[in-house]
Amino acid sequence: MSNILAIIEGHKNLIFQDEETEIKYQQRILICNPCESRKSDLNIDICGECGCPLATLLRQDVKHCNLGKW
Length: 70
Description:
Blueprint: H1 2-15, H2 19-32, E1 38-41, E2 44-47, H3 54-57
Antiparallel strand pairs: 1-2
């Protein structure tokens, strides 16, 4: 259930961007880009641990990285 809530919050934050969320996204993407669990599926970057799209996962605070990286 937390994955669904995280994706919903992330989509909301992707559509209605604010500076604080985008700073958080930029910090997290620097951590996720080199991660061995990062995958690409149909040109969409996803977390291989939870299956969430990174564009939305990194813009929310409902859940945290399953590997404890952020």
